[in-house]
Specification:
37% helix; alpha/beta; seven-stranded mixed beta sheet; four-stranded parallel beta sheet; 404 residues
Length: 404
């Protein structure tokens, strides 16, 4: 059965390099189906849905849509609102009033759960309706997906940032700590490992939320690397936690702010500064620097994976095909096939909504301070083609005359 009516598309959560590819893929594919009367975009995600803040994408030119597709961040604007059941009921009322029959929401696991609840209200009222969740997250934490659109490009940025940090640290030795996004999943921080080309290159140590963080061991690890190379480059997830699951930044810093969901705010420079100060104080190392990558990872212009671009477009296209062609609801997932190719499968909304994926054990070394070759094989294709590769001088040293 093909329902005749409007399509509404929204974007939620943190923006990415490629989220607009998914938007444009869904728009252009939906245009091909005669049962679609209009295609609306909701501004500011679910906030735009409840407030009827729509733009008519039916009237947008294909030429401009293609330009928007290559532009980072959320073209429809986004939101951090996490709707409850009452909020979702209001969303459904608005969609029904506008004769919307197809709802596409591009976002992470909370966005998927929103789609599920809205769809449930439609089913309860026997309203002819199809709802599809389109995956997006740089954290790469959607269950039942090999990876998520947005991760590859953010991982590419992290890799290249650590390439540069390593070169700087090699020229002027010391300890460098880079704090990378990732509350519960360490996939993005782990991508820093791709920066390593030569045996003495950094990052030398990687700490992830999936393993308990112990300050004493952290300092021992740094001392060991520093004694060997005279320097140390460290990648740390912002969400590193102790054995009880308490974020380290909340233990080291007082008066930590919380977000709308009660989660401690992990952004800002607090964690990097605190870890850096511990290294200076306990190891007596003078040159210690810490950077927090923050929002730079999400929408850094021109640092994008061509694989990520292609797959983000295709998940948007497949969402439209699943709803309009195959007449089903669900969440589009990416499944890896072969050495590197992918297939798109639809899974139920309840299987993905509200759930969080973390790094599997085989991707983390036994000491919990680095990743394995299995992770490298998993991650490298997602960064796309043309990744820079730093080189170093190989000329032999000249024999000393005065300072033998």
């Amino acid at each position: 059965m093909n329902f005749s009516g409007k399509v509404v598309i929204a974007q939620g959560g943190g923006p990415t390099q490629v989220i607009n590819e998914s938007l444009v893929g869904a728009v252009l594919e939906s245009r091909k189906f005669p049962q679609v009367t209009k295609i609306y975009g909701a501004l500011n995600g679910v906030e735009g849905l409840v407030n009827e803040e729509f733009i008519d994408l039916t009237q947008e030119t294909t030429n401009n849509l293609e330009k928007v597709a290559k532009t980072p961040s959320a073209a429809l604007l986004s939101t951090r609102v996490k709707p409850d059941k009452a909020y979702c009921k209001e969303i459904f009322k608005v969609l029904k009033a506008h004769d919307v029959r197809y709802f596409f929401y591009i976002g992470g696991n909370d966005s998927c759960d929103t789609v599920r609840i809205v769809n449930k209200y439609a089913q309860e009222e026997n309203y002819e309706f199809r709802a599809i969740h389109i995956p997006k997250t740089i954290d790469n934490d959607l269950v039942l997906n090999d990876h998520s659109p947005g991760y590859g490009s953010a991982a590419r940025f992290v890799t290249q940032a650590f390439m540069g940090a390593n070169l700087d640290n090699k020229a002027l030795k010391g300890v460098y700590i880079g704090v990378v996004m990732g509350r519960h999943a360490g996939f993005l921080t782990a991508a820093s490992s791709i920066a390593k080309k030569y045996p003495d290159d950094g990052p030398h140590l990687i700490y992830l939320p999936e393993r308990p963080f112990y300050m004493d061991q952290f300092l021992k690890d740094i001392k060991q690397v520093y004694d060997q190379y005279g320097r140390c480059v460290v990648a740390v997830s912002e969400g590193i936690q102790d054995e009880k699951g308490v974020p380290i930044v909340t233990k080291l810093c007082k008066n930590i702010e919380t977000d709308a969901h009660g989660n401690p705010y992990l952004g800002g420079s607090a964690l990097g500064e605190l870890l850096g100060n511990e290294v200076k104080k306990k190891l007596n190392i003078g040159r210690v620097r810490a950077d927090t990558f923050g929002y730079l990872q999400r929408c850094f212009v021109s640092c994008v994976s061509d694989i990520d671009l292609m797959e983000a477009r295709e998940v948007g296209e497949r969402a439209a095909q699943f709803a309009l062609w195959e007449d089903v609801d669900g969440s589009v997932t990416i499944q890896r096939t072969g050495k590197y190719s992918v297939d798109y499968q639809l899974r139920s909304l309840k299987e993905i909504g509200g759930k969080t994926r973390t790094m599997p054990d085989e991707f983390i070394n036994e000491k919990g301070n680095y990743v394995t070759e299995a992770f490298y094989q998993y991650c490298r294709p997602l960064l796309g083609s043309g990744l820079p590769s730093p080189s170093k001088l190989r000329a032999p040293r000249v024999a000393k005359i005065l300072n033998k």
